[in-house]
Amino acid sequence: MSNNSVFTFSPTGPQRPIFPLPPTTTASTANTGTLASIDPLIPTVGPRARDLHYSIRDFLSTHPLLELGGQEHFTVERRRHQDVFGLHALPKNKIHPIDDVEFTAIRGPHGTIPVRVLYPTSGKDNRNKGKAGALIYFHGGGYTVGSVDEFENGLRLVAEESGCQVYALDEYSAVIDWVQGEGGRIRGVYPGKVLGGGDSAGGNMIVAVYISPQDRYVSPGMQSVEDLRGQPPAAVFTSGYDPLRDVGCEYASKLSQAGVPTRWRHYDNLTHGWLQLTAWSEVAEQAVKDVAHEVKRLVFAAIDTHTLKSPQGQVPVDRLNVRDFTLANSLRRQSGDKPATRAARTTRVTTPFKINTFSKPRNRLLD
Fold first, then answer.
1. Which of 38, 206, 235, 309 has the fewest C-beta atoms lying within 10 Å of its C-beta?
2. Where is the Alpha/beta hydrolase fold-3 domain (predicted)?
3. Quick check: 42 and 265 in contact, CB under 8 A?
4. CA–CA gap between residue 35 and residue 24 (Å, rounded)
5. Burial of 13 (0-12, 13-18, 19+ CB in 10 A)
6. What element of type H or E holds 194?
7. Burial 144-178 (b: 16+ CB within 10 A, else e)
8. Which among 259, 154, 228, 239 has a CA at the least distance from the CA of 197?
């Protein structure tokens, strides 16, 4: 898990980066593939600032080679991943404690959708008051392997550190409506504090749910700067040993150029998939805590205190939805009007770990 982004959307005024991000690769840097270092905490991307962390090396040396599966060994690879990362396979002293875990399901447009809900001890008060935040999480696995069970341990840590409920599932956007509606209401979730997240393939999926239906590209790096204007503020997390590293850096750079307030954190000594590695690596555990702290900052940053203007007048945040936002922005771009004047307050974390705060939908999102 290397690329993460977190977004919040401010409905008024120009967007400014929280701190400057590197420019996209130019002719002068194209040969080396490097991006300028922008912060003492973020090493230069390109020549490795540090070696792979010893805890990750130890994990790789003591576990079998894990692949994404294929036509012949798909089932075998899925079983191997489950045997390594599944919650049942972890030592009990490595499982992160949490208040409660609920196994439920909802009726989706194409059948039943299993959902696993993680309730943090730290979020009990907000839950009882109907002000809880929620993270809807799409797991990774290269679209071939992976299961909710393999990611639960890392997500327990995200839940407990952030104080937000985590709704872990396979990639079904219909769950967003449910969490922002009756499903979330009876669990104490405030509709304006619902986020969407995912790692790796799941991160790409959550971006696809958010991006305008006219923009069908899955990879965030394929989006032009103009396409990204009006996106929610972001925090992007990348790691050094990851095939998705460069696209994550490019995405952060494009967001910054588009005027989106963007935070970027790079872990040069981590590899892809670090959400699953907290049982073996203290640096992976700290990286997951960093993500959780961004979730907490965004979801509880007075998201529910804003009122937005619309052609009909003042509309509370929880009365708007993502489809309204993207379609309205698309029409405004075509007409030359300023975008996002009717946007919902939104938060997102992106590739491999993305987070979006969605406003309460009136219609079903992209099914």
1. 309
2. 214-275
3. yes
4. 8
5. exposed
6. strand 189-198
7. ebbbbbbbbbbbbbbbbbbbbbbbbbbbbbbbbbb
8. 154
Please report which helix (H) or strand (E) contains residue 111, including its range.
strand 111-119
Q: How far apart are CA 136 and CA 361, in angstroms?
A: 15
> Poorest-confidence range of 2-11, 133-142, 244-253, 278-287?
2-11
Nearest CA-CA partner of 278 in 119, 116, 153, 92: 153
Axis crossing angle, helix 148-162 with helix 74-85, rounded to the nearest 10: 40
**Whether pLDDT at 340 is above 90:** no
Report which of 237, 243, 347 is spatially closest to residue 291, judged by C-alpha positions: 237
SS3 content of the chain, % helix, strand, coil (to 5): 35, 20, 40
Nearest to 150 by CA among 95, 73, 75: 95
Sheet of 234-241, strand order? 100-108, 111-119, 165-169, 132-138, 189-198, 353-358, 4-6, 234-241, 262-271
pLDDT number for residue 30 = 27
Higher pLDDT, residue 212 or 162: 162
> Under 8 Å CB-to-CB from 139, ≥6 apart: which residues?
146, 147, 148, 150, 151, 168, 169, 170, 198, 199, 202
Domains and CATH numbers, the chain: 4-358 (3.40.50.1820)
pTM of the model: 0.68
Q: What is the token pair recorded at 172?
A: 């079904």
Burial class (CB in 10 A: 0-12, 13-18, 19+), 364: middle
Which residues pair with residue 264 across a beta bridge? 236
Which residue in the block uniquely carries the two structure tokens 């379609």? Answer: 327
Closest to 189 (Cα-Cα) out of 224, 165, 205, 168: 165
pLDDT of residue 321: 31
Give the mean pLDDT of the chain: 67
**Opening angle at CA 286, ends 285 and 289, nearest 5:** 90
Q: Look up residue 145 and give its two tokens.
A: 């392997």
